Amino acid sequence: MREMREHAEQEYRRWLENTEDDSSMHAELLKLMGNDDEIFDAFYQDLSFGTSGLRGILGPGTNRMNVYVVRRASQGIANYLKKHYDRPSVVIAYDTRKDSELFAREAAAVFRGNKVKTHLFGEVTPVSVLAFAIRQLKCSMGVMITASHNPKHYNGYKVYNSDGYQVIGQEPEMILEEIGRVDFFEGIHRKLDNGVMTVSTRVSEDFIRAALKRPPHISPEAVNQLKTVYTPLHGTGLKYVRSLFKNVGYSNYTVVRSQEYPDPAFHTCSTPNPEKILTYDEAFKVIDREGGELIVATDPDADRCGAALYHDGVRTIVTGNQLGLLMLDYLCHMEPPEPDQIVAKSIVTSPLVNQMARKYGFKVVNNVPGFRYIGNILARLDQAGQGNRFYLGFEESNSFLVNPFSHEKDGITAAMLIVEIAAFHKAQGKDLIDRLNEIYEEFGRCVDKQRNYFFSGAGGRRTMDQIMTYLRREVRTRLGDKEVIRKVDYLRDTGLPKADALEFDFHDGSRLIIRPSGTEAKLKVYSFETDDFKSVERDMVRIIERFSQV
Question: Do residues 373 and 498 touch, judged by C-beta distance below 8 A?
Answer without folding.
Answer: no
